[in-house]
Design goal:
Strands 1, 2, 3, 4, 5, 6 and 7 form a 7-stranded mixed sheet that branches. This protein has 6 helices and 16 strands. The radius of gyration is 22 Å and the shape is globular. Helix content is 20%, strand content 29%. By secondary structure, the chain is α+β, with helices and mostly antiparallel strands. The protein binds zinc ion.
Length: 322
């Protein structure tokens, strides 16, 4: 699909400069350079400005937030030739912690910090989906995913010893058995399943009322993307799928998924719902879906703007999947 990388978090050509990760002298020089900047994360939220809304803060080394919170770091790479690092200050305990609405689908709370300006906050990336710039998004999803991996993989999976970050944050090394561990990415398939002019959509009971989306699920070990699409659709809806093609992908750092957007052709047969996964699934015509996207359908609302589901469905509607 020629527009595949226009999806939110679709990247902006960050030079990850992986050859520098193990070069302590080069990294030290990059950190001292005037061009160096840091993004800062706190418990998965990123420091952004309110105006312009959702713009990632790129802080210089001398900024009080960095001076006051040493925290773990990642070298993200070179963006437009400038070195970019990320700092995790999750150990900071706020005096006044923002309240998260219970049962909320997306955490819209914003956390202030005494070292940030009045119009700067820590915000959840999911709340910024439709706002975040491409270059900001690429940095933020990378940092969020890698920091989350460090927090959940503190101990060596081979011998149980506490491991240590290495390679500028891109691996963990075990001091006892010398094993090296690397950040993981979990593949998920999400699929446009079509039958002629109709699209298969469904809803999970945990979603906001009225929201419907594409079926999706984790790829299992030993499975191709195509097989995962066929298995997930059959398990959730009882529909058999024939030909499957890949369309586009989206990093989804909650905590570490990579969404593989696919399209598959349904074979004849009726829907049989797996009620543990889905509350409802049905076929919707292109004309009806156009009404959903224009906001004129009284019952159905589309997935959130910025999600790959919304991206794929809008491309299907516009007949722009090539
Ligand atoms: Zn070990």
């Amino acid at each position: 699909m020629k527009d595949a990388e226009l999806v939110t978090f679709g990247g902006s050509g960050l030079d990850r400069a992986a050859h520098l990760r193990g070069d302590a002298a080069a990294l030290s020089a990059l950190k001292k350079s005037d061009a160096a900047c840091w993004l800062v994360l706190w418990r998965g939220k990123v420091a952004v400005s309110k105006e312009p809304q959702g713009q990632l803060l790129r802080l210089p080394a001398a900024h009080p937030l960095l001076q006051n919170h040493p925290g773990p770091e990642i070298f993200l790479g070179l963006q437009a030739g400038k070195p970019v690092f990320a700092r995790d200050i999750s150990s900071w305990e706020p005096e006044f912690e923002a309240t998260v609405e219970p049962q909320s689908f997306v955490d819209l709370s914003t956390q202030t910090h005494p070292d940030l300006a009045e119009n700067e906050t820590f915000s959840d990336l999911r709340a910024l989906l439709s706002l975040i710039r491409r270059d900001d998004g690429e940095l933020a999803v990378t940092a969020r995913s890698v920091f989350s991996w460090h927090r959940s993989h503190r101990f060596c999976a081979r011998c149980g010893q506490e491991s240590q970050p290495g390679m500028a944050g891109w691996q963990r090394d075990c001091p006892q058995c010398d094993a090296h561990h690397f950040p993981r990415t979990d593949p998920v398939v999400i699929m446009l399943i079509t039958r002629g002019n109709d699209l298969l959509i469904g809803r999970s009971p945990h979603w906001p009322e009225g929201m419907y989306s594409l079926l999706a699920g984790f790829v299992e070990p030993g499975e191709t993307l195509e097989a995962a699409v066929r298995r997930e659709v059959f398990e959730e809806s009882g529909i058999r799928v024939g030909a499957v093609s890949y369309l586009a992908s989206q990093p989804w750092p909650f905590p570490s998924s990579l969404m593989f957007g696919c399209i598959g052709e349904a074979k004849p047969g009726d829907i049989t719902l797996d009620e543990t996964e889905l509350e409802e699934a049905f076929w919707i015509s292109r004309e009806e879906m156009a009404g959903v996207f224009s906001g004129t359908n009284p019952r159905i609302s589309p997935p959130r703007s910025g999600s790959i589901a919304q991206f794929l469905m809008s491309k299907w509607l516009a007949d722009c999947l090539d």
